[in-house]
Amino acid sequence: MATDVKRNTNGLKQHAEIKKRLSLEKVEQAVQKMIKNKEKINFNAVADASGVSKSYLYKNEDVRERIVQLREQQEGLPSPKQMKTEMTNKSKDILMAAKNKKIKQLEEELLSIKEELKNYGD
User: Which positions ≥6 away from 39 have C-beta within 8 Å?
Assistant: First the structure.
């Protein structure tokens, strides 16, 4: 009763290839977006942003190397949160002066408008 049955696995192979390609595209898009937004790149963040599992990221050699490389590049860079807290007093003073100048300008404009309204009613 030996039957020579050849299994048709072409559909499974095609589906696996499509799924692999889509996963790589998701990861690439997520990494590009994270770079653009200056977000921290690590395995957890990429997995969350791309919707793929962390195990997928670790198992795929190219993806793993890219994430490790990007993570190492970011180590020396301050995060946006650090940059904000490290703002110097001088830059804060400059911002305050600019805001005060704008407030004064708006107050003068308001007085001018009030004066026009007062004269308009007469």
Answer: 33, 45
Contact 63, 42 (CB under 8 A): no
Name every residue whose Cβ is closer than 8 Å to that of residue 86 and which is 6 or more positions away in sequence: 78
Side chain identity at 85, as an amino acid letter? Answer: T
Q: If you average pLDDT over every residue of the chain, what do you get?
A: 87
SS3 15: helix
Helices in 37-88 by DSSP H: which ranges? 43-50, 54-59, 61-75, 80-85
C-alpha dist (Å) from residue 44 to 32, 57, 109, 121: 15, 9, 52, 66
Is the pTM higher than 0.85? The answer reads: no
pLDDT in tens, 15-72: 999 999 999 999 999 999 998 988 889 999 999 999 999 999 999 999 999 999 998 8
Whether 35 contacts 41, CB under 8 Å? yes
The secondary structure of the chain in percent helix, strand, coil, rounded to multiples of 5, reads 80, 0, 20
